[in-house]
UniProtKB/TrEMBL annotation:
This is Tyrosine-protein kinase. It catalyses: L-tyrosyl-[protein] + ATP = O-phospho-L-tyrosyl-[protein] + ADP + H(+). Belongs to the protein kinase superfamily. Tyr protein kinase family. Residues 64-160 form the SH2 domain. InterPro entries: Kinase-like_dom_sf (IPR011009), Non-receptor_tyrosine_kinases (IPR050198), Prot_kinase_dom (IPR000719), Ser-Thr/Tyr_kinase_cat_dom (IPR001245), SH2 (IPR000980), SH2_dom_sf (IPR036860), SH3-like_dom_sf (IPR036028), SH3_domain (IPR001452). GO terms for molecular function: ATP binding; non-membrane spanning protein tyrosine kinase activity.
Length: 433
């Protein structure tokens, strides 16, 4: 297979192959994230990051083509910072095989910026069209035409802005030395910007931590913060991908969040549910799901952090003992009373997290002490509907807080319902083509 470089790459180690955008390479072996390749025509060979290249003569080489992106993800991308009216992308249509969709950022005076979608069809001759009145021999010709002509909601101005993909973590660099990190502004080996979380000495044993971390590094999903490496000597550190906007809690309390529309809060809830759905299917329990443990990048995409750490902490934080430190306001009653942490206790926590999202990071159950809250919940009390939470969303929160854990919804159900809510808010002003 021959590939073309989409970005410049400077080798991280002696065995890596340095290349420039536009260089062509022949792939010799595909092995995980790093491929062995030969630079053409020089013949130099080495390892290359697979997310920096695309197969030659494929749509992946076009800046406006986004593979494996659904309708909701297209809207997230186009409405993220850095894009403007007329930004667009082409994606594979998931509802119809061998067809595509064109998504464009537009503006409605009554609703603000929105995304409109057009189905791209093909006829028996293989020509592409949005309107059958005019056809094109390629998707490239179609997008070029609408960059210079009206006929859609807005002329296509520029490809959807997407930042350069994160540089893949160095091969075989799992347990790293503390000396390889610049701690004031965390950077690994003077090259890769990272986030570093340092655990207090004595909070966990190195053996238990490494055992859990080895499981955590296999859990990779777009809605989970990527775990890169660890420093296993005291104080233990975990090194993860860098998220520009910090925790969701801090972001919700920022000026930027105060300007967001309702559908964005629904979308953030759906993103977290999507990540939890993945953990649910892996039978993995988070145990500390709250806005403080969700991180946000510069495109306002949410990712779940700190999954797996709770069960290796040694300070009884998650034991319902006198004076324990567990996060009462987010914890399910069966976890408080019997230390029973399951996916269903995570669902309870998710209901509380939704309240945080819609109230701009307000502390749950304001004005109540922990003993008072525990006692009242045992007798059936539930958080009243916060002022900014729509009735349909509050009904979903109450489902999460059902007395019987087995009756609470799955994260798959929660994700689907929230995505339906999100689509419904957009559909009020979407064109039909």
């Amino acid at each position: 297979m021959t590939v073309i470089a989409l970005y410049d790459f400077d080798g991280l180690t002696e065995g890596d192959l340095t290349f420039k955008k536009g260089d062509k390479m022949r792939v010799l072996q595909q092995n995980g994230d790093w491929w062995n390749a030969e630079l053409l025509p020089s013949g130099r060979s080495g390892f290359i990051p697979s997310n920096y290249v695309a197969q030659t003569n494929s749509l992946e080489t076009e800046e406006w083509f986004f593979s494996d992106v659904n309708r909701i993800e297209a809207e997230r991308l186009l409405l993220s910072p850095g894009n403007t009216i007329g930004s667009f992308l082409v994606r594979e249509c998931q509802s119809s095989k061998d067809s595509y969709s064109l998504s464009i950022r537009d503006h409605e005076p009554s609703h603000g910026d929105i995304v409109k979608h057009y189905k791209i069809r093909s006829n028996s001759s293989g020509a592409y069209f949005i309107s059958s009145r005019i056809t094109f021999d390629s998707l490239q010709s179609l997008t070029e035409h609408y960059q210079h002509s009206d006929g859609l909601c807005h002329r296509l101005i520029r490809s959807c802005n997407t930042k350069r993909p994160g540089q893949l973590w160095q091969k075989d660099a799992w347990e790293i030395s503390r000396d390889s990190l610049l701690m004031k502004k965390p950077i690994h080996n003077n090259r890769t910007k990272v986030a570093v979380k340092t655990m207090k000495p004595g909070t966990m044993s190195s053996e238990a931590f490494l055992s859990e971390a080895n499981i955590m590094k296999t859990l990779q999903h777009p809605r989970l913060v990527r775990l890169f490496a660890v420093v296993s000597s005291e104080p233990i550190c975990i090194i993860t991908e860098y998220m520009e906007n910090g925790s969701l809690l801090d972001f919700l309390r920022s000026t930027e969040a105060s300007c967001l529309q309702l559908n964005k809060f629904i979308d953030m809830s759906a993103q977290v549910a999507e990540g939890m759905e993945f953990l649910e299917k892996k039978k993995f329990v988070h145990r500390d799901l709250r806005a403080a443990n969700i991180l946000v990048n510069d495109q306002i995409m949410c990712k779940i952090a700190d999954f797996g750490l709770a069960r290796v902490i040694n300070d009884n934080e998650y034991k319902a003992q006198e004076g324990a430190k567990f996060p009462v306001r987010w914890t399910a009653p069966e976890a408080i009373n019997f230390s029973s942490f399951t996916v269903k206790s995570d669902v309870w926590s998710f209901g509380v997290l939704i309240s945080e999202i819609f109230t701009f990071g307000r502390i749950p159950y304001p004005g109540m002490t922990h003993p008072e809250l525990i006692r009242k919940i045992e007798f059936g009390y539930r958080m009243p509907q916060p002022e900014n939470v729509p009735s349909d969303i509050y009904a979903l929160m109450l489902e999460c807080w059902h007395e019987y854990p087995e009756t609470r919804p799955t994260f798959e159900h929660l994700k689907n319902v929230l995505e339906d809510f999100y689509t419904a808010t957009e559909a009020q002003y979407q064109p039909s083509f």
